[in-house]
Amino acid sequence: MRLFGTAGIRGTLWEKVTPNLAMDIGKAVGTYIEGETVVVARDGRTSSVMLKNALISGLLSTGTEVLDADLIPTPALAWATRENGDAGVMITASHNPPTDNGIKVFNGDGTEFYVEQEKELEELVFSGNFRKAAWNEIKTVKTLDVIDEYIGAVLDFVNHETELKVLYDGANGAGSVLAPYLLREMGARVISVNAHVDGHFPGRKPEPRYENIAYLGELARELGVDLVVAQDGDADRIAIFDEKGQYVNEDTVIALFAKLYVEEHGGGTVVVSIDTGSRIDHVVENAGGRVVRVPLGQPHDGIKKYGAIFAAEPWKLVHPKFGPWIDSFVTMGLLIKLIDERGKPLSQIIREEIPTYYLTKKNVKCPDEFKKATLERAYKVLEERLMDETKEVLTISGYRFQLKDGSWVLVRPSGTEPKIRVVVEAPSEKRRDELFELAYETVRKAAEEAMRKG
């Protein structure tokens, strides 16, 4: 049994994420770091205070000193951990619905726990072999004020003042306690929506997918803003609209920053997740860098392994020069700086600097027990059909066929749902449609056959 998924522990309250589990994670973390100092924080979900207090109890039982930063965004917790602690724990389910909650664990340098560390923590939880502090070794809980210092750190790093008009959507999440003030300190004229914390997420669903935030496009045009930024429930993810109210594809955002960093460094390695597009490869390779793809949820592993100057997966960007964690606040600050320094609206920058590719994604229903057989059947068919066009096949998180014309086909199992995800991208709509029909029908038939044969 696995507790950790692609981004910490996450699941429905009482079914998977319980106060008992939070307490055990606290005991395991305290045991793992041998009772040093842990920074703890939470998002605005209705169950987060309960789980945070259970986690703190577990930490205290091991003789660990606890610094309670309370309600802050996840990037601020990562930063506060690097500045103040030997580990950090965030109570959050990120962009999941309000019924869910979760736990993320960070190292003392602000990186999320690596895959091997998560396995070691799981073993501790399942063994129950926790450190037990004597009565006179139990330490205290101290309050840690983070927000002002973190804002100062981001401002120092971005080092830019602006007059842009920015529309901010906080999803009623933890970012609302920080983002409007950061933007104002940069000099931006800020208009905020859904910027009061509410664990019921009354404004919109917390995941900043286009379908959840499409209304921001019309709002941007009505208000005449230069930029729209939208966050998720714990404010590590960010989605963007330009000054015309057009949604900016998440791969385009990654490509903009990848290009910027490679040009700045005169080369270097950019790490991105398996489900990102060819426009990133195009701009990075033209600027003299290289792209390496890693499984979803492992950008920090990729930074460590490849010495990356930048890492990202859709909506999640890591700026290693600032810190090795996903940070939407640094992203919005640097994006504003980029727009001002180019002296052009965002839509024009994208049009001039980032090539257009056409992407389609769709899921095929497939129970977990049939995923392996479905993938194997689909792979055999696609390997044969795409043999003459294939440049390479990546076998992390399913199969990604990288084709010679820059197109790619990804077939991967969902880590959280009974689905196989099919993603296709190509330089033209016609090519995309042809490849998608092939890939989707292949996976659909493979799933039907796997379920029929049992």
Overall description:
The protein has helices spanning 19-32, 48-61, 74-84, 115-127, 147-158, 179-185, 210-213, 215-223, 250-265, 278-286, 299-306, 328-342, 346-353, 371-385, 429-453; strands at residues 9-12, 37-42, 65-71, 87-91, 100-107, 141-143, 165-169, 189-193, 227-231, 238-241, 247-248, 269-273, 290-294, 310-313, 316-318, 358-365, 390-394, 399-403, 408-413, 419-426. The chain folds into four domains: 9-144, Alpha-D-Glucose-1,6-Bisphosphate, Chain A, domain 3 (3-Layer(aba) Sandwich); 148-248, Alpha-D-Glucose-1,6-Bisphosphate, Chain A, domain 3 (3-Layer(aba) Sandwich), CATH 3.40.120; 250-320, 3-Layer(aba) Sandwich (Alpha-D-Glucose-1,6-Bisphosphate, Chain A, domain 3), CATH 3.40.120; 358-453, TATA-Binding Protein (2-Layer Sandwich), CATH 3.30.310.50. Helix 1 runs parallel beside helix 2 (48-61) and helix 14 (371-385) packs across helix 15. The chain starts with 8 loop residues before the first strand and ends with a helix. The chain contains 15 helices and 20 strands. Strands 1-5-4-2-3-6 form a six-stranded mixed β-sheet, sandwiched between helices. It is globular and about 70 Å long. Helices cover 40% and strands 23% of the residues. By secondary structure, the chain is of the alpha/beta class. The longest helix is centred in the C-terminal third of the chain and has 25 residues, at 429-453. Belongs to the phosphohexose mutase family. Residues 2-130, 148-245, 250-357 form the Alpha-D-phosphohexomutase alpha/beta/alpha domain. Keywords: Isomerase, Magnesium, Metal-binding, Phosphoprotein. Its cofactor is Mg(2+). One of its GO terms (biological process) is carbohydrate metabolic process.
